Amino acid sequence: MSKIAVLPGDGIGPEVCAEALKVLDVVAGKYGIPLEFEEAVIGGAAIDRYGVAMRDEDFARCEKCDAILLGAVGGPKWDDPEAKVRPEQALFKLRYGFKLYANLRPVKVNPALIDASPIRGEVLRGTDLVVVRELTGGLYFGKPSKIWKAPNGVIKGVDTMAYSEPEIERIAVTAFELAQTRRKKVTSVDKANVLSTSRLWRQTVAAVAKRYPDVEVGHMLVDNCSMQLIREPRQFDVIVTENMFGDILTDEASQLTGSMGLLPSASLGKGKFGMYEPIHGTAPDIAGKGIANPLAMILSAAMMLRLSLGQPEAAGAIEDAVQRVLDAGHRTADLGGKTSTSEMGDLVAGELR
Question: Phi/psi at 93 (nearest 5 deg)?
Answer without folding.
Answer: -65, -40
